[in-house]
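Predicting holo structure, adenosine-5'-diphosphate bound.
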Amino acid sequence: MLNIVLFGPPGAGKGTQSAKLIEKYQLVHLSTGDIFRANIKGGTELGVLAKSFIDQGKLVPDEVTIGMLASEVNKQSDPKGFIFDGFPRTSAQAEALDKLLESKNTGISMMLALEVEEEELRKRLLIRGKDSGRADDQDPAVIQKRIDVYNAETMPVKGYYSGQNKYKGIPGVGEIDTIFDALCVEIDRA
Ligand code: ADP
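Done. Tokens:
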């Protein structure tokens, strides 16, 4: 199986590139942010809980996020592989993902990390907030909180995968297709 962790700060372009990658490589796309938003829209218990954290720019607690992700992985019968988008975001999530995949006799093939500097992220998120109506993209304080949480809680996940020689950084600024090509080069090399 080809199992990719697509990594990067809020606004790095993970969703955009995931859409292109799943088409080319026939992978299952699991975006924890998308799944939370679908639950919020559907008014589920999980959605109500997630919203209380998302609106403040905080992470949804690990046990909730890990349980949800595991049940999504288990739903797939014979996948070619997965793109994990927005997961893992903490070291505990990374360890849980390794255990889950190990129990299925597979593992993470690589982490592809989109690298974008903070000033550009703040700009992109505000534009997305206007276009998409996403509440967490409209408030500069919530955007800053998400960037701070990323630096404090999510950056260690990079060390987790580089310790396994699986980390590959890709510049996330420029044309969408150029970035996509750079991601494909890394995947095809593996
Ligand atoms: P972005 O990366 O653009 O901030 P996402 O759509 O990936 O947005 O996530 C939106 C929000 O959902 C996050 O700010 C966070 O509150 C929550 N979330 C998403 N993925 C996770 C995760 N793996 N662990 C905890 N919370 C998460």
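The domain at 2-189 is CATH 3.40.50.300 (Rossmann fold).
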